[in-house]
Structures are given as C-alpha cells and as structure tokens.
Amino acid sequence: MVYSDHELAFVPEADAPGVGAYRQELAAVAANSRTIPHDEIIRKLDEAGKSFNVLIIKTNMAIPYTSVFIELRARYWGDEAEERLRKSMPR
C-alpha cells in the first residue's frame, strides 16, 4: 500500500511552486495510493521501524507535505488468508 500526505491536496501553488506538477506526477506513479494525515504517516513509519528495517530516502525537494510511505506486503499471503489463520489458532 502507498500512503501520501492528505495535506498535499491543499498546498497552494502560490506558496509552493511546483506542487501542482508534483501532485500530477505522484498520481501517475501511485494511482492507487491512499491519503492520510502527515502525522499518521509518521506513526506508521515509527511502528514499522519497531519490527522491520526501514529505508528512508530523502530528497532536496522543498515542497511541504510530500511524504510517501510504501508498505510492502507479502504477495503470496493476503489479508484474508491471514485472518483465516488467526481465527483457526487456539488462543
């Protein structure tokens, strides 16, 4: 799943030149992304870092609210299979 900052949709071009072009490029490469508040992206990153190695890529872009969090999931094992497994296990 790809998450991006919900706030990005409201950043005006006058305050952040290039934001419109960035939004178009992001929509083209992450068409199925979900927008969530920036602080939730940071929470997801913090939570993931507790169990997994996390790769952070920083750029010199100076447009606010351009965080993108990519959560990789095992393709061979879906949410439904995980739910069935958890329900079948004794507590």
Question: What order do the helices and strands come in, and which of them pair?
Answer:
Elements: E1 2-5, H1 19-29, E2 34-36, H2 38-51, E3 68-70, H3 79-88
Parallel strand pairs: 1-2
Antiparallel strand pairs: 1-3
Provide the residue-averaged pLDDT: 93
Helix content: 25-40%
Number of domains: 1
Please work out how many helical segments DSSP would assign: 3
Strand content: 5-15%
Please tally the β strands and state the result: 3
Radius of gyration: 17 Å
Task: Report how far the terminal alpha carbons are from each other.
Answer: 29 Å
> What is the H/E order?
EHEHEH
Can you list the strand order of the major beta sheet?
2-1-3
Secondary-structure content class: alpha+beta
The low-confidence parts are none
Could you describe the largest sheet, including whether it forms a barrel?
3 strands, mixed
**General shape:** elongated
Q: How is this structure best described in words?
A:
It is built from 3 helices and 3 strands; from the N terminus they run βαβαβα. It is elongated. Strands 2-1-3 form a 3-stranded mixed sheet. With 91 residues, the protein is α+β, with helices and mostly antiparallel strands. Helix 1 links the parallel strand 1 and strand 2 (34-36). The chain has one domain.
List keywords for this structure.
91 residues; 3 helices; 3 strands
Provide a short characterization of the protein structure.
With 91 residues, the protein is α+β, with helices and mostly antiparallel strands.
